[in-house]
Every structure is written in C-alpha cells, then in structure tokens.
Design goal:
It is built from three helices and no strands. The chain is an all-alpha fold and 98 residues long. Helix 1 runs antiparallel to helix 2 (26-51). The relative contact order is 0.14.
C-alpha cells in the first residue's frame, strides 16, 4: 500500500469512526461526513490520474459538487435546529417532534 493510499484510506476510516462513536453534536457529525467525502474525492482523483482515464476525469468534480451541496444542506439543517431547539445536541432532537 502506497503512502497516498494509506493517507486517504485512514482519513476515510477516521471520519467513519468519528461519525460512529462521537455523535454528541450535529456539527461534529457534519464535519465527519465532510472529511469522508473529501477523502473519497482524493481517492477518485488519484485513481483517475493513475489509470490515465481522461473520460473519468469529470467524476471527482461531480463528487466535489455533491459534497458542497451536502455541506450546504447540512449547515441549513444545523441553523434550523439551533433556532428551533436552541442547541445542536443530537440527543435533544426527536424526529417525531420535528
């Protein structure tokens, strides 16, 4: 395993572990999701460069655009829950009440 592969694999696993084990605030969950998406972007970019596939070069940019849309929707949800509930703790959110 090359150091590049190790770095984005470990970044994805760290983001996944942070999402699974540290779920106290909505902002930390969103940051873990963003880290996972950015590690996938790096992985797709490196794979397209190594494979020298010019037709596949638009896929990382498409993933980055979806990641930006996901981040903006997540921040909108964060602002809405902070205004309605007064906090961003995930324990205080009840999906049946929202």
């Amino acid at each position: 395993m090359t150091p590049t592969h190790f770095s984005f694999t470990s970044a994805f696993i760290l983001g996944l572990m942070g999402l699974a084990f540290h779920r106290t605030h909505l902002l930390s969950a969103l940051l873990c999701l963003e880290g996972m998406m950015l590690s996938l972007y790096i992985a797709l970019s490196v794979w397209a460069l190594q494979a020298e596939a010019t037709g596949f070069s638009c896929a990382p940019m498409l993933l980055l655009a979806f990641s930006a849309c996901e981040a903006s929707a997540g921040l909108a949800i964060l602002v809405a829950t902070a205004r309605t509930h007064g906090t961003d703790h995930l324990q205080s959110l009840n999906l049946l009440r929202c």
